[in-house]
Every structure is written in C-alpha cells, then in structure tokens.
Amino acid sequence: MRTIKTKTAGLHYRILILLLLVLNSYAYPVKAQSSTRVFHIQNYFSEVYLVENNNKLVLIETGVPVEGYADSLAQSIEDLGFKTEHIALAIVTHGHGDHAGNAHYLQETFDIPIVGSQFDFEKFTSGKTELAKSKDVSIWGTRLRPNMDMDYPAFTPDILVGTTEVDLKKFGIDGKIIPLKGGHTPGGLTVLIGNQFFIGDAFIGTFALDGASLVPDDHHVREHFYHENTTVADQVLEVIEKIAKANNVTNIYPTHFGPVTTAGLSKYINEKPILKELSKLQASLLKEIEHGDSDVANTLLSKNFNIITPYGQQFAKTDFIQQRITSPKTKIETVSAEDFRIVKADNNTAIMTFLKKLKITNKEPQNIYATAFYTKIKDHWELVFEQDMLQQH
Ligand SMILES: [Zn+2]
Question: pTM for this one?
Fold first, then answer.
C-alpha cells in the first residue's frame, strides 16, 4: 500500500515540477495607478502578488507547496529588485495549498508576519486543503481534483482576521483587508491597496491558453472550479463588485488568471442567470448526443450548424460528412463543453461561446470553438444557430 501511495504522489509531484519548469520565475510588473505597483510572480497555475505601496511591500498569497518553489519565490522577489526580508507582511486569502503553501517558509526564514482568516484556522494549523469539503462547480473541478488536494507545511498565522476590516496603516500601507463571508472556503480575505483589489479565489479569470482567444480581449470572470458553499460564493460576487465600485477599482486580481476589470465583473454578474441557463442547455444537448446511438451526421450536425476549418474553409453539412467522417456510422465517444461565456445578451437573444471537446471513434480528440445563437421563445431559450470552428492541430 505504501509503495502505491508514494508512486501516485510521485506522479503528481512530477506534473507539478514539469509545470513549474515551464512557468517558474516568470515575474513581471504591471503598471498601476498612484504609488501602488503590482508584480505578478507566477507559479504553476496561480499567482503570488508582490505589491509595493508607499515604499512598503506586501505579499498576497505564498504560492504552491512544491519542493524548490519556496527558494524560487524568494529568488523572483530578489530578481524584481527587492529584498524578501523587507516584506512587511504576507496575506494568505484562504487556507488552500496553492495560496498558503509557503507561509510557513516565509514566516520561519524571513520572519514575515502572516495574515489569515480565523475561519480557515484549522486548515492553516493542519496544513490541509480539505478539498473533500468542496463541491465541483465545473468540469475542471472533476479533472483537477486528484492534483489539487495539496497538503502544505502547517503554520499559525501571526495575525488572525475575523469579521471586521483591518486597516493596513499600521504597516505604513494605504490599504485594508476586507473579509468575505466565505463561500470558496469559510475564511476568504480580500485586500484593497490603493485602488488595486485582490480577491483570492472568490472567482477566477479565464485561461489565456485555452479558449480565451474565443473573444479577442482580456481575461474574463469565470466561476472557480470548487466552492465549499456555492450560495455564499454567488453572494460575495456582488459584495466584491460593490467594494470595487466604491473605491474606483479598475483592476481586480483573482489569484488565478487575472486581472479582470470591474466592468467585466458587473457584466458577469448581470449575465450569470442567462449563462447558467444556456450552459445547462448545451450540457444536456451534448449529453444526449453522447448517449444517443445515432450517427455523427444527424447528431453533431443538425441543419443549424456551420463548420469552419482553421483555414477558413466553410463546410455545408454534407460536404463535412464526406470529407471528415469516413463512415456515416462513426460514433461519438465523448463530447463535452466548457469555458462558457456570454458575448452579448438581452432578454430575448443571446450569443454564447464555449469550447467543445469531441472524441470520435478512431480519430484524435478534437477541440472545437463554438459560437451559439439563442432566442427566447415563451419562457425557454432555444438554439437557433451554432458555428463550430475546428482547432488546428
Ligand atoms: Zn482556493
């Protein structure tokens, strides 16, 4: 038993290391208004933010609990021209391993005071992410779960935040810590420094590498893959929006795939009911296709579909079948969709983009960028037309 466990851990560890080799030490500054400067230190799939305000330094998040990463974090800080021991405090937004992973190291090695919520105290002092307490919100939750339940070196925060705001003036910083009601975990903290707003995992941005190119602009607001309490997680979005508006915040920094704009968050909140309904509609449509016995021609390509290749070639339904699918009885093994995003919507019409993953028997799995148009008929949304763009291999 012990050997098997070690092997599994070893595999995950190697995946982490591999990703780290790609992304490690990739730090870059972002221009911010007033005297606040925000530096991204990317690690694995998340960020550590080094924030300079009034010549004082604050670290937001501490990175993943992967051997060797702690040193590289310190190195990245030095590379940016700062001394790690000059950091006034490190704020951990919540008790998950990819945020609290190196709090113990920073506390022990550089004597940096660590701030955390009292409601995640048990996670911090046990070093457990406790992912079993979280529900999967999207398909990515299920996919990433085996790699995300990270244990990390336990620590006791030097400063515990309860339900009231903490002014950072005593550290010489023009900012404050604003606790949330939780949702993602029981103890979520946000940090407002100048007009830069850090919100942990209350939501995330879209991946730049996967589907973000569907709409040619910056990162979009996207629901996190896990939440311990999805109802509260929904409620805090509006709290965040309110704080952002009241403080003239333009950039909101989630810990994964940010920043996003305040306008982008408002758009997301407004369109969330439609987004949820349409993504559910698509998911059930794809499930029917996946479970049905009918051939590709009649399922994937209804009369309302239009297919475009990476070279801009357009196919009518019959041409597509002849050129791409050898047998009319070719079966769809799996088809799923993710990264749903509303491009435009009103009460009666909506355009949604998403990424489809299609696996046909004897073919390589394929990514398809889909744009779907819907109208509301009586109380129901109906798919009017969908254009699928095949991704180039
Ligand atoms: Zn988290």
Answer: 0.81
